[in-house]
Specification:
With about 240 residues, this protein is mainly α. The chain has a single domain, classed as Cytochrome c oxidase, subunit III, four-helix bundle (Four Helix Bundle (Hemerythrin (Met), subunit A)). It is about 70% helix and about 5% strand. The protein has seven helices and four strands; from the N terminus they run H-E-E-H-H-H-H-E-E-H-H. A hairpin with a 4-residue loop joins strand 3 and strand 4. The protein is elongated. The N terminus is likely disordered.
Amino acid sequence: MSHDDHHAVVIPAPGPEFVPHTVAHHFSTPVQEFQAGKLGFWLFLATEILLFGGLFAAYFYFHELFPETFRVGGEQLDWRLGALNTSVLLLSSWTMAMGVRSAQTSQKSKTMIYLFLTVLGAAGFMVIKFIEYKAKNEHGLICFGHLFDGYDMASGQVSWFKDYDGVMAGVPHGHMFFSIYLTMTAIHGLHVIIGAIAIIYVMRGTAMGRYHAGYYLPVDLVGLYWHLVDLIWIFLFPLLYLVP
C-alpha cells in the first residue's frame, strides 16, 4: 500500500442526498480524526472557561468590596427579562442537542430545522438583550454614546455613567456594578453571535449533505460551543439579576 493510499480513507454517504467524507490526510482512521477534533475543541473550550473565570473572579472581588453597590445595582435590572432570556437559551440548547442527534442519524431535514430554531433562539436572546441595554442607556446607567470617553474629572465618574434618576447616588462607586454587568453580558453576547454564525455555517454544510451518521464532527463541535454559551448564562443570570 502506498503512502497516499494509506491516507485516502473515505466514509461513504448513507444515501443519495448526502456526500462521502474524505478523512483528512494527516489522520489514519475516521476515529482518529473524530477524537483529535474533539480533544482540540475541548482545549479551546478550556480557554473560554479561563476567560469567563477571570470575569467571575472580578465579580466576586468587587461584590465583596461594594456589597451595597451591587445590591442597589442589581435592583435596576429586570429579572423577568433575564429569566426570559434564560428560558430562550435553555430551549435553544435543546434544539441544538436535537440537531446534533438528527445529524448523527442522517436526518437531514430535521437537522436543518433544529439548527434553524437554534439560530432563532440566538436572535431572540440578542433582541431581549438589546431591550435591556436600551433601558440602561435611557436612564444613564450605561450611556453607549460615551462608552469610550474615559473618566470624567468633574463628576468623579466614568463618562458613560450619568445616572439621570440618581438611583445609585447613595452608594460608593455607583458605576462599578454596571461595569461588571456590561463587560460580562457584552462578552457573552459576542459569544452568542459567534455561535449563531457557526451554526449557520454548519447549516450550509448540512444543506450540501456533508454531515450524516458517518461524519457529523462539525455539528457536534458547534453543539459543544453552544452548550457552553448556555451554561455560562445560567451562572450569569442569578449572579447579576438575583444574588445582588
